[in-house]
Amino acid sequence: MRTVTVNASKKYDVFIEKGLVSKSGEIIKNLASSRKAAVITDNTVAGLYLKTVVDSMKENGFEVHTFSFPAGEASKCHRTLIAVYDFLAEAQITRSDVIVALGGGVVGDLVGYAAATYLRGVDFVQIPTTLLAQVDSSVGGKTAVDINAGKNLVGAFKQPLCVICDTDALSTLSEDIFADGMGEVVKYGMIKSATLFEKLLSGDVKDSLEDVIAECVSIKRDVVEADEFEKGDRMLLNFGHTLGHAIEKYYNFSGISHGKAVAIGMAEFTRLAEEKGLCKKGTFEKLKKCLEKNLLPFSCDISLKELAPLCLSDKKRKSDGINIVLCSEVGKSFIKKLGIDEFYDFLNVR
Ligand SMILES: NC(=O)c1ccc[n+]([C@@H]2O[C@H](COP(=O)([O-])OP(=O)(O)OC[C@H]3O[C@@H](n4cnc5c(N)ncnc54)[C@H](O)[C@@H]3O)[C@@H](O)[C@H]2O)c1
Fold it and tell me: 0.90 cut: is pTM over it?
């Protein structure tokens, strides 16, 4: 088993191994302060892994209450959140009990936010079941729900008791949802690790899933430990996201997945950075090859002129401009602060 320890405001472990879902009760027993738990998931994951988690928890002496909601981003909203609070109240979950988030990033974000706010905070465990959730959303403590004005606009920082990544759970993902997670994996290679990037270019990730996930989690851990509350370098994790979020917004968050939008965002900013001498020549071609190999797009039909205002309405925007993330070469990233006009110049849209 790979274990990555995160030393954030709270210290916790990320466990990565095949078959861990069936050992979840044993792991949680060692960390929880009571033997009462609420396991919350979506209706797709419920049909796949809920029974295994519940059985494992019961075998380890837990009284378990379960709740599931419809799968998909549309559920990451206040309506579901209230339903989750009502369920927790009905099950008489107290501050000493534990909440388990079983599922992809939607479940992790929403249940994490419920755990951060219900009774002003209840311990929670993440059992991420998508590649994106294992390499990214389950680690680092960001939790959120969406509101009409935009994605993730209401949230809290809440670190879990632990994160349990079962690589076997990824075998039931569609090729498309697996590819979405690869968008974030490629991002880690681009921003911090040329070695990881080369591995993605030359081999099949599915042959070394545990290693790749552990490497991505370690990179995220290092960044989060240095800047838990996103005052500076944590922004590097947003590589590809400024344009990616604009593309998602253009399609009203339903026409393109997050991972694919981020892939296009990384490629476009790298192409522009190279054109302006901010990035080593040849980096865009390498990135393009890597994205194609991992079934991800590198361009889209929407013009940068249409996307520019959407980039500026992102929550990462500052009042006097915008911070964008670029790579000077594969494995090396930096934050560039631009005024609004400079940003338009960068996009060649003035
Ligand atoms: N908190 C963070 O730091 C952070 C970082 C990145 C993304 N996010 C958030 O994560 C969300 C996206 O996460 P996601 O891509 O995991 O989406 P998701 O949770 O919607 O999962 C995608 C689909 O896969 C299904 N699924 C999950 N696990 C499965 C499995 N093992 N087998 C088969 N199907 C499975 C789900 O039911 C869902 O239909 C977004 O809301 C995004 O904002 C958060």
Answer: yes
